[in-house]
Amino acid sequence: MSIDENENLCTRAFHVLEREYQIPTVNLCLLKNIPVGAGLGGGSSDAAYTLRLLNDLFALKLSVDELKPLASQLGSDCAFFIENKPALATGRGDELSVLELDLSSYHLMIVYPDIQVSTAWAFGKWSNDPTSSVMRDKALPDILRLPVEEWKEELKNDFEGIVFREYPPILAIKKQLYEAGALYASLSGSGSALYGIFRDSLPEIRWKDHYKVFKGTLHRD
Question: Which residues pair with residue 215 across a beta bridge?
Answer without folding.
Answer: 109
